[in-house]
Amino acid sequence: MSVTAAKGFTAAGIAAGIKENGNPDLALVVNNGPRRAAAGVFTSNRVKAAPVLWSEQVLKSGEVSAVVLNSGGANACTGPKGFQDTHATAEKVADTLQVNAAEVAVCSTGLIGVLLPMDKLLPGVETAAAQLSEHGGEKAAIAIKTTDTVHKTSVVTKDGWTVGGMAKGAGMLAPGLATMLVVLTTDAALDSDVLDKALRAATRTTFDRVDSDGCMSTNDTVLLLSSGASGITPEYEEFAEAVRQVCDDLGQQLIRDAEGASKDIKVEVINAATEDDAVEVGRSIARNNLLKCAIHGEDPNWGRVLSAIGTTKAAFEPDLLNVAINGVWVCKNGGVGEDRDKVDMRYREVHIVADLAAGSETATIWTNDLTADYVHENSAYSS
Amino acid sequence: MSVTAAKGFTAAGIAAGIKENGNPDLALVVNNGPRRAAAGVFTSNRVKAAPVLWSEQVLKSGEVSAVVLNSGGANACTGPKGFQDTHATAEKVADTLQVNAAEVAVCSTGLIGVLLPMDKLLPGVETAAAQLSEHGGEKAAIAIKTTDTVHKTSVVTKDGWTVGGMAKGAGMLAPGLATMLVVLTTDAALDSDVLDKALRAATRTTFDRVDSDGCMSTNDTVLLLSSGASGITPEYEEFAEAVRQVCDDLGQQLIRDAEGASKDIKVEVINAATEDDAVEVGRSIARNNLLKCAIHGEDPNWGRVLSAIGTTKAAFEPDLLNVAINGVWVCKNGGVGEDRDKVDMRYREVHIVADLAAGSETATIWTNDLTADYVHENSAYSS
């Protein structure tokens, strides 16, 4: 299903030879219309990969005819030659599909600081174009994997229209956005400004609140393409909620497949004075290595939650803080609460609630534990 | 040597039974004058342990007669009872030594969220007082260890006067200050305002730039006590430099003994527009888990350095960034530089230079690699 669940889209995923192990590494997603409306959200990292710089320009027109994605190389920190390669890739797609290169978005993922093997990538575009299909969404999702152990897709179907998508991402997963590539498609008939509004609203509370390892990538890209092929223009709220659901589902799939993780940790901050405070506190907790180690060891170490809260500028009084871990309020009023031995941490999902007792706002950040497997994977894999 | 290297001080370190394993856990440092001038710097964590709240008040007078330190329990997040325990500890020291309780600083380190065993701690104060000696500095340094594998002391002797000190700290090591207790002593004859100025200047560029694991403690304390017993009042600059040297040496000892670490990483940011920019970039690099894993794997992964720089607000142009690892400029002008295979990473110390090409300011942050041993120690040890 994936990006071809919505009508008006074809896709393909092939092995172009970019990856030395011969796994699929090139995906193509084509919008066959009648509309070509699109919106995009990109990494806020100031060191941006060449394909991000290119695609940001493409999205300014609000029109995207095709997206070409490669794994096996991020094309980041590759200088003018890297940008030329991205440009050449877009031109190749444009020539092959008979579309305008200025409407071809490019996404890359993999090792930073290495040029792409263009002698393999460009012929791969032709191979992929020849395999474009209304059933190609899954193959496309497979072709963008790097250290992902599974491919990620999600679909929400409403009254006559659909939002679907695919995502990749397993490491360098942190806000603004997570290290990931995401392509969403819809056959709802909408303009690019509506797509943009719905996409930003959705990513703000989904992908932007996935923070597996605190490391922000140079390549993060989320695209939303509308073909309008359903002929239906849904109400904004209904459409925005469908986009949010797909983003939330894909974000959860990223967390569940994070490199080396053994726990998925839901950090819910409640009773904050402002939503910004809630997010700041949630992120501080989610990024605390000592806490992440404790969770790995199934140790309900609430002292590390408090020490993380204490590093923020959020409104709170230390003596009023409460913390629950998997439903047990182990910290009450800034001190010892219920018996920590009551906390059951055997399951993969761990739920931490931090009550700031300072207002009524809330935010949820998702993260993972810190494990020896994470260290092993990221000291052995150059990415 | 340690805190008794300077004239006018006695110290002791004993096993009071706070630690279940019977290791030394209580230290006493006494200033026998003629002066009792003192200065202190404390954690900027807003969740502060009871002894920090107490000692901050004590230091306001600029006078400290004695410091009592315990390992085996941080007395943090322990509510009103925890503060009463700190107060009772200071009163016990005051009674035993016949000094004013308002001049007794208290420091604690160990597990957060657990009350101290006062039935063992208070008798321990008497035992320690009975063993006070001009040669007790080393025993005091041993008694404040937690997960430290070695005790840390440092001494600088100048023309007739001395600055010496001890430190503990191995985990939750991050700025503002590192998770650590430090007591410095001098027999130079100086007022508390001069001590304060010299101590803040020293910690700003030493302990505050030690960032082993990004986790800021609730208990960090650095104290500087002057007995004036040398009768000598040195020039401020000479004294400040001696304090800085002792702080720098102790900070280095903390990094070398950081939990689970196999590498000591010197992150030097050069050509920054401002010192604040240099520190922000240095910290961002030092806290990047992916980079810390790569260094553990002896992988000169400069792409992770650039992606960390890109998350900051510092002044720089991505295309002008340069990065050297152990003397090899692996990244030039934001792209591929010298051959990364030339980088020799076999030794414990790793030197990363990040050239922002945006000015002439510089800062150095020290950190450690991220290892499976760190994960193991912090998922198994509740602290």
From TrEMBL, chains A, B:
Q: What is the protein's species of origin?
A: Streptomyces cupreus
What EC number(s) would the UniProt record show?
2.3.1.35, 2.3.1.1
Concerning its family, UniProt says: Belongs to the ArgJ family.
Annotated site location: Involved in the stabilization of negative charge on the oxyanion by the formation of the oxyanion hole: T109, G110
Report whether rRNA-binding shows up as a keyword of the record: no
- InterPro entries hit by this protein: Arg_biosynth_ArgJ, ArgJ-like_dom_sf, ArgJ_beta_C
Keywords, A to Z, come to: Acyltransferase, Amino-acid biosynthesis, Arginine biosynthesis, Autocatalytic cleavage, Cytoplasm, Multifunctional enzyme, Transferase
Question: Which domain of life does the UniProt lineage start with?
Answer: Bacteria
Keyword RNA-binding (UniProt): no
Residues that coordinate or bind substrate = T146, K168, T179, E259, N378, S383
Q: Which residues form the active site?
A: T179
**What is this protein's function?**
Catalyzes two activities which are involved in the cyclic version of arginine biosynthesis: the synthesis of N-acetylglutamate from glutamate and acetyl-CoA as the acetyl donor, and of ornithine by transacetylation between N(2)-acetylornithine and glutamate.
Q: What is its main location?
A: cytoplasm
> GO cellular component terms?
cytoplasm
The reaction(s) this protein catalyses: N(2)-acetyl-L-ornithine + L-glutamate = N-acetyl-L-glutamate + L-ornithine; L-glutamate + acetyl-CoA = N-acetyl-L-glutamate + CoA + H(+)
Which Gene Ontology MF annotations are present? L-glutamate N-acetyltransferase activity; L-glutamate N-acetyltransferase activity, acting on acetyl-L-ornithine as donor
Pathway given for this chain reads: Amino-acid biosynthesis; L-arginine biosynthesis; N(2)-acetyl-L-ornithine from L-glutamate: step 1/4; Amino-acid biosynthesis; L-arginine biosynthesis; L-ornithine and N-acetyl-L-glutamate from L-glutamate and N(2)-acetyl-L-ornithine (cyclic): step 1/1
* CDD domains, sorted: OAT
Compartment list: Cytoplasm
Give the signal peptide, or none.
none
Pfam families reported for this sequence: ArgJ
Question: What protein name applies here?
Answer: Arginine biosynthesis bifunctional protein ArgJ
